[in-house]
Design brief:
There is one protein chain. The chain is mainly α and about 210 residues long. The chain has two domains: about 100 residues, no CATH class; about 90 residues, no CATH class. Helix content is about 60%, strand content about 0%. The longest helix is centred in the middle third of the chain and has 29 residues. It is globular, with a radius of gyration of 19 Å.
Length: about 210
């Protein structure tokens, strides 16, 4: 996940143009209520083809939406958010912009939280990983409102951070899975002791200790 690899800027004219391209791809409200997720596939495929795979998260809304546990607030779910194509298209554009803003925010946090180069794997060096995990879990819990399935995106963000710092994808998945290990749950914001435990386990996993 690196927004810098997929530049994205959109002014009012660009947003209006995108809305006009999205509108013909949208289902009517009746179809959206009958089969919400597949009915939006043409929109998602178009956005991903135009901007990159990052755009697939445009409708990853907070709580029990089209996909559980996201951060997008402007979009609820297809059964509630889809009206007429002309009314819904601007909402899709706004949701895409909100999702992109979150990815750019994460990229800035990743850069700020990255351990200094050549940091030794020691008790002192592990502190950087603990700090990063603590802050990332906290911000994801806040943005997702710790709603249904929020921990799925939280674990994804932690994997992205590890990958951003040169850790193999498979190893990152194992480290995060071992660190979280069922300690997070839907509709429950983790308390300080839980976050501390997860952060410590993640740091030890990076250091090959735990």
């Amino acid at each position: 996940m690196d927004p810098a690899r997929h530049p994205f800027e959109m002014d009012d004219d660009g947003a209006e143009e995108l809305g006009s391209l999205v509108a013909p791809l949208l289902p009517c409200a009746e179809v959206a209520r009958e089969g919400p997720w597949p009915s939006l596939d043409p929109v998602t495929e178009f956005l991903a083809g135009r901007y990159g795979r990052w755009a697939c998260g445009w409708n990853w809304s907070v709580g029990e939406g089209d996909v559980d546990g996201g951060v997008v607030q402007v979009w609820c779910c297809s059964s509630d958010s889809v009206a007429t194509p002309d009314a819904t298209a601007p909402l899709v554009v706004e949701a895409l912009q909100e999702w992109r803003g979150w990815l750019e925010d994460l990229a800035e946090r990743f850069a700020a939280l990255a351990p200094p180069e050549n940091t030794a794997v020691s008790s002192a060096g592990l502190w950087y990983w603990e700090r990063a995990c603590t802050r990332l879990v906290t911000v994801v819990a806040d943005r997702t409102q710790a709603e249904s399935g929020w921990y799925g995106h939280c674990m994804q963000v932690l994997r992205w951070f590890l990958a951003r710092n040169g850790i193999d994808e498979g190893q990152a998945e194992e480290i995060v899975e071992n660190a979280v290990g069922g300690r997070f749950g839907s509709w429950i914001a983790p308390d300080v002791s839980v976050i501390d435990a997860v952060s410590s386990r993640l740091a030890r996993g990076v250091g090959g200790i735990g």
